[in-house]
Amino acid sequence: MSLFQSSATPFFLHKNAAPVTEGRYDVILSPQFYWVKKVTLPVKREGEAKKLAESVFEGSLPRGHYSYEVRKAADGDFIIIAYDRQAISDALQHYLTQDARVNHVYLSQFACHNLDACCSIDDASSLVNLNGLLMQIPRNCTDPKLTMETFLEEVKPEGKPLRLGTLDEEVVERKIFIFLAAAVALLMLALGVEYVDYKHAASRVEAQKEALIEKYD
Predict the structure, then answer these.
(1) Which residue, 57, 56, 60, 82, is CA-closest to 69?
(2) Is residue 4 part of a domain?
(3) In terms of domains, do 134 and 212 share one?
(4) Which of these, 13, 57, 51, 64, lies nearest to 38 by C-alpha position?
């Protein structure tokens, strides 16, 4: 079962990844591109926890403009992720160049949460699950039974794609264009129908006028 049910190719993005220049990709972000904590909070719902997310990371993040994702774990704790949209957008532009296109962007914490073995990313790093949190560690697996390529082919998609400003704007602009094009088409159709009705009405009036002229001529 492929990780992503689409024509896009899964691409695990980490800081040593080789840039790609063509193709359409579903990007999975390495933990190198976000910060994650698992915490106990005095709330029950994810929406309530999200309101506290900024305070959870207070004083521990580099300078930036952060957004937050929250998921409730099976044990009742909350997994909270902080990410900088602009930094991620910059990374996407750096690693996907020329004709390479981004379909969706996912956080590996949620997209790959089923990982239960050490997964080799490359010769120098691995992705591991430590107490429910996915971490990229700077060494290869001691028993590399699983590679990232194999993992992406076997697991099912988990988690919603990230909403990144520039990508969302492109989608919104595309939707607006389609909506406006449809509206213009409907307007032209309505005007066309109205014009035909007008011509028919004008023809009837003209016929009635000619009939009256003939009658009283």
Answers:
(1) 82
(2) no
(3) no
(4) 57
Are 71 and 13 contained in the same domain?
yes
Q: Measure the N-to-C terminal CA separation of the chain; round to a whole number of Å.
A: 86
pLDDT, tens digit (0-9, with 9 covering 90-100), for 175-207 = 455 567 777 778 788 776 676 677 677 777 777
pTM: 0.72
Decide the pairing of beta strands 133-137 and 96-107: unpaired
pLDDT, residue 89, reads 96
Residues near 91 by beta carbon (within 8 Å), at least 6 away in sequence: 13, 33
Q: Structurally, how many domains does the chain consist of?
A: 2
CATH of the domain at 35: 3.30.420
Residues 137 and 176 grouped into a single domain: no
Band the pLDDT of 1: cuts 50, 70, 90.
very low
Which residue segment(s) compose the domain that 215 sits in? 164-217
Count of H helices and E strands in the chain? Answer: 5, 10
Residues β-bridged to residue 70 = 80
Confidence of residue 139 (pLDDT cuts 50, 70, 90): confident
Pseudo-torsion of CA 170, 171, 175, 178, nearest 10°? 60
On whether both 120 and 201 belong to a single domain, the answer is no
Q: Which long-range contacts (CB under 8 A, 24 or more apart) does 37-40 make?
A: 37/79, 37/80, 38/73, 38/77, 38/78, 38/79, 38/80, 38/131, 38/132, 38/133, 39/77, 39/78, 39/80, 40/76, 40/77, 40/78
Distance (Å, rounded) from C-alpha 104 to C-alpha 171? 11
State the average pLDDT for the chain: 85
